[in-house]
Amino acid sequence: MDFRALPSGHITLADVTVPACLTGQDGDLITTDLHIDDGKISDTPGQRVDMGRAMVLPCFTDMHVHLDKGHIWPRASNPDGSFMGALTTVRADHANWSADDLRARMEFGLACAYAHGSRAVRTHLDSIPPQPQITWPVFSELREAWAGRIDLQGVCLIGCDGFSEDGDFKVTADLVAEHGGTLGMVTYPVPDLRDRLEGFFRLATARGLDADFHVDETMDASSETLRLIAEVALEVGFGGRIVVGHCCSLSTQDDARAMDTLDLVARAGLHVVSLPMCNLYLQDRTPEGTARTPRGRGVTLVHEMRARGIPVSFASDNTRDPFYAYGDLDMLEVMRQATRIAHLDHARTDWVTSFTTQPAATCGFEAQSLAPGAPADLVIFKAREWTELYARPQSDRIVLRNGAAIDRTLPDYSTLDHLWETP
């Protein structure tokens, strides 16, 4: 197959490799034909195109990113690679986050995600006043501008010690509801966290909003805010969807305690998103850049979660900012790295759903499928096995949207230079 010229219209992608789980079958990879007609997966054959067992996946859903932080590294690099170095650097850079600055960087990130094959993105948005009044209108503008290419969701982000049920956060919650977003917060051990969580859930319930938390992003085993979120959610009977991200401290806790917490998470119906690339970058790093080899990976207990029926997704997280110096919002890279970091190989055969169908379902995006009637939003790779897929960057992949190949040209970094050049 010539990857430079794929016809459109009513065609049959003959002899393609797809994950069996995405076709409702048992097993790992299977070879089949995919019919495309009028921009949708069809059940009737069209013009035959021999694909030579090329692998085909549905377009990706990247459900935990930070478009507003993205690409500030040239002017706001992490001084030592630590979590605190990232936090303090970003907070200082907020002074530069004008509407024009945000728009340029967020649009750059969306263009990267689109070119790599994502069709849906959920982004967290720093919402410490007065930033929400600047960021959320830009978010809504971009959501409208990118409609039809990327479905976009927004989540507010503050630290739990900045939460007040009757203070600034109430205003932020109203703003989030106005812009059709999700209520979010970072949780870490503070003495009155239970009270803060109860207030958070009350605000979300009153506005009909789902919840999305950054949780226990630390290797400190004593950090158990995940457990408290599950307990409080059960106690108050919160009716919305709850997503918890990171959950790193589980990996350092006593095994019996961690498993008991996961049983509670399963009962509470929480959805988990793991961010392995950012966690590997930040966690178990010696402060101030001391030369010490890290011992821990920081990845949460995804295998034990799936064994309990807990929905698990993976996502990109940060991109070229103090929390993660690298990345390009390429979900294939996330799949490749997650497979290596969390040992997803030699395990179950349906992990691919954690990068495609599961995050879409968790966030409430349009369902993804390879079944007839589904949009022909596909990513095609010149690879016939998982080892071939992960061995190369797949820079020659084809992305189909509504059955037609898109222009995959990535934006040039130089287009952002004006944001940090001195006049």
UniProtKB/TrEMBL annotation:
It comes from Tateyamaria omphalii. It comes from the Bacteria. GO terms for biological process: cytosine catabolic process. Keywords: Hydrolase, Metal-binding. Signal peptide: none annotated. The keyword Hydrolase applies. Residues 190-387 form the Amidohydrolase domain. GO terms for molecular function: cytosine deaminase activity; isoguanine deaminase activity; metal ion binding. This is Cytosine deaminase. The keyword tRNA-binding does not apply. InterPro entries: Amidohydro_3 (IPR013108), Metal-dep_hydrolase_composite (IPR011059), Metal_Hydrolase (IPR032466), Metallo-hydrolase_Enzymes (IPR052349).
